[in-house]
Every structure is written in C-alpha cells, then in structure tokens.
Amino acid sequence: MLLLALSAACGLPVTALGQTDVNDVHVTPREVEKGKTEEVAKRSIDSPSLSAHVRPLKVAVDLVLVPVTITDPMNRLVTGLEKENFQLFEGSAGQEIKSFSSEDAPVSLGVIFDSSGSMSSKMDRAKDAVMEFFKTANPQDEFFMITFSDEPEVINDFTSSVDEIQGKLIYTVPRKRTALLDAIYMGVSKMRQAKYAKKALLIISDGGDNHSRYTEGEIKALVKEADVMVYAIGIYDRYFQSEEERLGPALLGEIAELTGGRAFTVENPNDLADVATKIGVELRNQYVLGYRPSKVVRDGKWRKIKVKLLPPKGLPPLRVYARTGYYAPEE
Fold first, then answer.
1. Residue 53 in contact with residue 41, Cβ under 8 Å?
2. Cα torsion at 69, 27, 209, 167 (round to 10°)?
3. How far apart are the C-alpha atoms of 223 and 207, rounded to whole Å?
4. What CA–CA distance (Å, rounded) separates 55 from 300?
5. 104/109 Cα distance (integer angstroms)
6. What's the CATH code, domain 108-283?
C-alpha cells in the first residue's frame, strides 16, 4: 500500500530548498573547470585539519547505486512505491534497474554545527535539534561532529555513542565568524573513514560563509564527486544583516541538491528539533535503485543520472530527490 510518511515537522512553516518537478528531476550542476576539481583534491591550506585529500567518487564496479527520496506537495515522505514506479537514465540512455530496496540501512553521518557568534540566541535550541535528530538513529549507525566558527574542528570522531557526542556538544560556545565552506570540506574529507556505503552530512547554520579559504565553486565540485548526501537546516533571521547572509539559503540549497539531499529554511528556532527529526526519518525512508550502465567507457568523465517517476494513478504531483551523477572509472 502506498503510504505518506508524515513526520513531526509537517505543517510547520518550513521551506525545502532545491525541490524539482517530477518530470524535471535534476538541475544541471554549475560548470566548474576540470582544473578546479583537481585543485580541490590537491589543495592544502594553512590549517592542518583542512589538508586532508578527498578522493573523487569514481565507480569502479558495475553496479551504480542511487538513493532516492520522494515527497508529496505537502512535503511529506512518500513510501510504498515499487520498482516499476521508477525509470533511470544515464545521460539520455534508459537503464535497467537491477536492484531495488527501501529498507533502512546503517548510515555513516557527520553533523556540521555552526558555533559562530551569530548563533548566540539560537545555540541551545540548535543543540536540542541535534539530539532530537540522533533519536532517529539505529544502533548500527556511526556519527562524527564538526563545529565551526573561524575554522572547523572535529570535536568527536566516529562513534556509535550519542551520549559521547552530547557530552562534547554541551561545551560548544558561540564565537567569531563563519567558515561554513571549510567545514563542509572537512566533513567530506572525514567521510573517507566511514564504514558504511550510505553516507550523509547534516549542516546546521544560521547564515552564509564569511571566513572560508575554500570557494563556493570548489566545494560544489567536491560534493558533486564525493557520494555523500548533504542535508541542511538554515536558521535565518527575517532581515539579513549582510550579503553573505542573504546568499546563505541559496548556497545551502544548491550544495544539498547536487548530492540528492535537501535544505530546509527555519525562521523560528523553536521549530529546529522537529525539522531535525524530519530529516532523520527521511534518511531512513529512501529508495535505493541500482543499475549496471549499458555502456561503460573508462574515461574518468562525469556521467549524469536522471530519475523519473511513474506514480500510481490518483496521486498528486510528486517530487524526486536523487544524486546527479558519478565519475566513470579511468583506465
């Protein structure tokens, strides 16, 4: 039976960024020069914590896995769909779906937590949101946490203990500026140590970047390659104090969409915990489609993936969220 999974956050004044129409699933990623992509992987900056290299996602096996989230017009999860409700394309070529799953698989997850000075009035509720998010976790899941102000810092390495992270988070205090892009870079780098195939980052921030060494283009190229879903909760004031803050929602939305994740805008910090719970539930109610490319060319180039939905009759227009592609293997 087709079900609408309604999380606690439904009905709240929350906007999901980066949504796409069911017949136009993906937004074409912004073009980045090939040299730029390579530079991201090679670049080392002053902070030792940001010098880790990130290997691009290059599919070296036959099976390509595509996590997919479906929502209805009220932003509720749609579960209960079957394999025959999906179509997969690599470029313009249709692909046969070889594997299909909607089971809850263990997740390697990193929380990227804004501890900059502008978070002062929102810090306690943001911490509560993190703990509500962890309540949706499974015992097999693993987590790490990065906080960021002027620069990012791993405050807790991979662990399955929610209490361990909570114990570190309680001592986080707001200070200084916002190095959001550097924190995302560090989070993607950290995911090289993940033990599960399903990987995700949850970003909680109240504004745009104003202190990073990495650029927006470099980070977009990085997440496009990394096979890590990005979810974001943006806590924005009604009136933006700077150009960086004004651009913050679009920045988080574009980064999340490139990975098949989503970004949510929250105006009332009291809604944070419910939105965090919604994201946790969504991570555990995804479809995973697997296919073997009908044409394999080992040239190391980007392969665009498109997912189309063939919904059962009588349903309202549905929205599809999925990763945008992968890099082919090289000889």
1. yes
2. 10
3. 19
4. 13
5. 14
6. 3.40.50.410
45-91 residue pLDDT tens: 344 445 544 444 444 457 888 999 999 999 899 999 999 999 999 99
Q: Please check whether residue 307 is in contact with residue 324, taking contact to mean a CB–CB distance below 8 angstroms.
A: no
pLDDT at 157 over 90: yes
| Whether the predicted pLDDT of 26 surpasses 70 | no
Phi, psi of 146 (to 5 degrees): -120, 130
Lowest mean pLDDT among 38-42, 94-98, 185-189, 212-216: 38-42
The runs of H, that is alpha helices, within the chain are 34-42, 123-134, 162-169, 180-190, 216-226, 243-259, 272-283
Residue 5's nearest CA partner among 272, 280, 216 is 280
In angstroms, the CA 65 to CA 194 distance is 17
DSSP assignment string, 230-256: EEEEEE--SS-SSHHHHHHHHHHHHHH
Domain ranges (residues) in the chain: 3-28+62-103+289-327, 108-283
pLDDT of 241 reads 60
Q: What pLDDT is stored for residue 200 in this prediction?
A: 95
Residue listed under structure tokens 């915990």: 273
State the pTM of this model.
Answer: 0.77
Query: What is the DSSP code (8-state) at residue 196?
Result: S
Question: Cα separation of 140 and 107, whole Å?
Answer: 8
144: tokens are 């790490």
pLDDT score for 247: 64
Burial letters for 47-86: b for 16+ Cβ neighbours within 10 Å, e otherwise? Answer: eeebeeebebbebeeeebbbbbbbbbeebbbbeebeeebb
Q: Which residue has the higher pLDDT, 309 or 266?
A: 309
